[in-house]
Amino acid sequence: MTSTEELSATRFSGRVFSDPDRPEVLFTAFDVAAYTRDAQGRIAVDAQAVAPLDDRLRADLEFLWRLDSAGLSETRAILGNWTGNEARITAFVATWAVERMWLAWALRDILAADGPKPEPRSHTRLTARLRDVWVERAMPVIVAPVAAVVGESITAGHMLRLALQEASLQATYAALLPRLEGEAARVVTEIIARRATIVEFFELEASARIGRSRAERLSARGSMLAWRPLRIVGVPDPDEDRALASIFSTPEARAGLASVDARIRGLLDGQGVIAGTDRFGGPPPPPSPGLLHRRGRRGVQS
């Protein structure tokens, strides 16, 4: 059976995602195999070389630690629905979740060198607590069936959200860097550098999907409604207002954040879109439809 006939037969009966070499899997220029193979591991911190942190700086770093240490929540939101079917994405996310943990641990080690280890903070606002209940209890039950109905198009929104979140986190660390010195500055510089690869993956995935079809572009646009990237699966940190005002207190810091926000959101209007391909380097395969799409027969071909 030729690759074209194989693709047609697969679409007729369902879709297989577990093998990234199948022709229906979307590819970008990002080398996922190299990323998983070359994962950098934990960032060593010389606690003796960490300069004292003032109260404001410590609180700002603790805010960032809470965001980065919540990578598992973001991972669950991705893999708990249709997006978990995508081979290249799941391979990347498995490594990304560990890499993001190392970034959080490095920040924790900086904070612990000059005081107590940071701890999670409970939500006090009712809206945040309700959102937390949604994420922990309702979302896993409700979102997965909805995503199955929508189909692969929902993945474009996930990729765009995470591209914006990771780019915004990178800009937030960069905004703090001028206030750091010595070992803390070195570690945060390393965090910023490592995040560049993460941003690249999500931005390329979002770009390829948004540029591929109108359905994916609409799905991505809808996913950004009321979306704030510096939150954990949409749940605001208890110290969010104070921390953001402190970190982005200068025009330069605000401009840096606005720049990455405009770049990522600009993909929705076709700005900087880079097309994906199939595994042969040809035109990208169309997105797999959801459960309401009419099929000749049921089942997933293996």
Describe this structure in words.
- There is one protein chain.
- This protein starts with a helix and ends in a 37-residue tail after the last helix.
- It is built from 11 helices and no strands.
- The protein has one domain (39-269): Ribonucleotide Reductase, subunit A, CATH 1.10.620.
- The radius of gyration is 20 Å and the shape is globular.
- The longest helix has 31 residues, at 182-212.
- With 302 residues, it is mainly α.
- Mean pLDDT is 84; it is low at 1-18 and 294-302.
Rounded to an integer in angstroms, the radius of gyration calculated over CA atoms is: 20 Å
In CATH, the topology is named: Ribonucleotide Reductase, subunit A
- How do the SSEs run, as a string of H and E? HHHHHHHHHHH
In round numbers, the mean pLDDT is 84
Protein name: DUF222 domain-containing protein
Region (Disordered): 275-302
Biased composition (Basic residues): 292-302
Features:
single chain, 302 residues, mainly alpha, Ribonucleotide Reductase, subunit A, 11 helices, disordered N terminus, disordered C terminus
Brief rundown of the structure:
The protein is an all-alpha fold. About 60% of the residues lie in helices and about 0% in strands. The radius of gyration is 20 Å and the shape is globular.
SSE topology:
Layout: H1 3-13, H2 32-37, H3 55-68, H4 71-79, H5 87-113, H6 126-150, H7 154-176, H8 182-212, H9 214-223, H10 240-247, H11 251-265
Helix pairs in contact: 3-5, 3-7, 3-10, 4-5, 5-8, 7-8, 7-9, 7-11, 8-9
Biased composition (Basic residues): 292-302
Protein name: DUF222 domain-containing protein
Region (Disordered): 275-302
